[in-house]
Specification:
Blueprint (H helix, E strand, L loop, with lengths): L1 H8 L8 H14 L2 E4 L5 E4 L8 E8 L4 E7 L5 E6 L11 E5 L3 E7 L20 E3 L4 H7 L5 E4 L4 E3 L2 E4 L2 H17 L8 E8 L7 H10 L3 E9 L19 E6 L7 H13 L4 E5 L6 H8 L4 E8 L7 E4 H17 L8
Parallel strand pairs: 3-12, 3-13, 13-16, 14-15
Antiparallel strand pairs: 1-2, 2-12, 4-5, 4-9, 6-7, 6-9, 7-8, 10-11, 11-17, 14-16
């Protein structure tokens, strides 16, 4: 899991994904025939030389994480910030962040001290009312930080039994699944007549922007997006609202608010999971979207998402189960090996 840790610890917000672009490019060059980077930053790798009259399969994980940029530094050195991606304000207070400028420094997100306004202590502050305190003077801050520098949550990668806890599993775990899948395919003797494109997309968290460009360029026959999904299997949530459960395997998405998976692909995924005894669960997500939505709208409509269940998504401490990650890789590899037999249904 060292590669997953490296991906999660990278600082890469929408539009500033260079750290992860570099990792994806380096790793894909080890297993793929050709690796390119387009003008928006998408990393696209073709597994082996292109074959005519073969199915084109695209697998994609997005490289960006939710984060912020520095928007203002006041005369005392406190930093104001602007969000990139969807944040939950109540989970930000008193959390550590990394600010990446000329050098990287650490700060704490704060708002009006709770002890001064006890009646407001239980209310969530708006992001516009928050600031970052580095403890440094304005002179020290201005030496290394400027408006436009990126800010990411600061959390170590921790493993505890089968569970991993970190920032940015959304969607570095998807990037990891893509990379590990390509490693396994490079050793596969069952790969048929298929062109496999592995893609790390940009700016998913601000409107699926990278995926839309990829779809126009490649026009795949099948697209499998890899992302996290909500695991609400926690106290106080009714079972029918839990969406997915940690440790119950890869989630095969039926739909979310952005895309409806092709039923032929969904049913084929289920059969493969049963055939190879891959632990799986079905997912109906009543909100959100993945790169599948961008590709469905601007390229091929034959899409599906394989999801890694995650607790506490879009928080400083996201949680996944490594067995679910393994199941996702396993099912994706089997799909690519046998996708020629998949029949679309409408």
């Amino acid at each position: 899991m060292k590669l997953l840790e490296k991906l999660c610890q990278a600082a890469a917000i929408p539009g500033r994904e260079q750290e992860v672009i570099d990792i994806m490019q380096k790793e894909l060059k080890k297993t793929c025939h050709k690796v390119t980077i387009d003008d928006i930053g998408n990393v696209t790798a073709l597994h082996r030389p292109y074959k005519k009259n073969a199915k084109n399969v695209l697998i994609a994980g997005h490289m960006d994480e939710i984060g912020f940029i520095v928007s203002y530094i006041d005369k005392s050195g406190f930093i104001r910030f602007s969000p990139r991606g969807g944040h939950i304000p109540k989970v930000l207070i008193s959390q550590r962040v990394r600010i990446v400028g000329k050098k990287e420094i650490v700060g704490i997100v704060e708002s009006t001290p709770a002890f001064l306004k006890r009646d407001e202590a239980k209310k969530a502050s708006d992001i516009k009312d928050m600031y970052i305190d580095t403890g440094l003077s304005v002179k020290e801050v201005n030496k290394v930080i400027q408006v436009g520098d990126i800010i990411v949550l600061d959390r170590p990668f921790t493993m505890q039994g089968d569970v991993c806890i970190s920032k940015a599993f959304d969607d570095r775990v998807g990037c990891y699944v893509v990379l590990e899948t390509m490693k396994q395919l490079s050793k596969s003797k069952k790969l048929g007549k298929v062109n496999v494109y592995a893609v790390g997309t940009t700016q998913e968290e601000v409107g699926l922007r990278g995926a839309k460009g990829v779809a126009k360029d490649l026009i795949p026959d099948f697209t499998i997006a890899i992302d996290v999904t909500a695991a609400f299997d926690t106290p106080g949530v009714a079972e029918h609202q839990q969406v997915s459960k940690l440790g119950e395997g890869v989630a095969i998405k039926i739909n979310d608010m952005g895309s409806i998976s092709n039923d032929g692909i969904v049913q084929f995924m289920k059969k493969l999971a049963q055939k190879y005894k891959i632990k799986h669960q079905m997912e109906v997500l009543p909100f959100g979207a993945t790169d599948a939505a961008g590709i469905q709208a601007f390229g091929s409509g034959a899409v599906c998402t394989l999801s890694v269940p995650a607790r506490y998504v879009h928080s400083p401490n996201e949680m996944v189960n490594k067995l679910d990650v393994k199941a996702t890789i396993g099912l994706l590899v089997k799909f690519i090996e046998e996708c020629a037999a998949c029949k679309l249904q409408f």
